[in-house]
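The protein record quoted for completeness.
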Amino acid sequence: MAINLGKDPNILILISFAEVLFILVPSLIAAKIEKKSLVDELKEMGFQRKPTTLKKMLLKVSFGLLIGTVFFFVSGFILSFFVNFLVQILFGALFVEEGINNAISTTPLNPTIIQLIILIAIQIIIVAPCEESFFRGFVLRKSYKKMKLLYSIIFSSFIFSIYHVPPFFVPLSTIFTFFGYYFVFGIFLSLTFILFKNSLLPSSIAHFTLNILILLF
């Protein structure tokens, strides 16, 4: 049975605040294990001011907007490739249909203008920065200390994908159907993060740009 988190936009708004745990929980655990201060862990995740110029700042913002927008327009082709070309050929149309029908929906149903504005603000302020700080700032950077960069990109993108199609909440058919889509987006975000020397700004902007475009269209 599908989980429709967007059935009540107010519940979706409240649930979104839980994403702050992506920052607090791993940083607190890592600080205790590595015997560092919480502030140091947060800085390592990317929460620190670095000297920059207006030109570099505009470049990060522009690139983030570009990546998010481009992925929005190509996401249909990416999803179609994985669903119709790979998953459907391997497992059949009924498998794909089951996967789609049991996916978790976060699309708000009939939100008011105020609710829509709040959801957009949450994407910008909470969802994208929190997820990027965890999947890129924490998972990617921590794993890079133990493995090659390519493997850490793949690993962090894998974790990112599993989060969006959680095994304990959706059937295997849903995981296989949508995993490739989220994995590719995770790769895009990881490369953006690395390209700008572990800056959370461009990947966060790319992330919330895609989410907002999906929300609006």
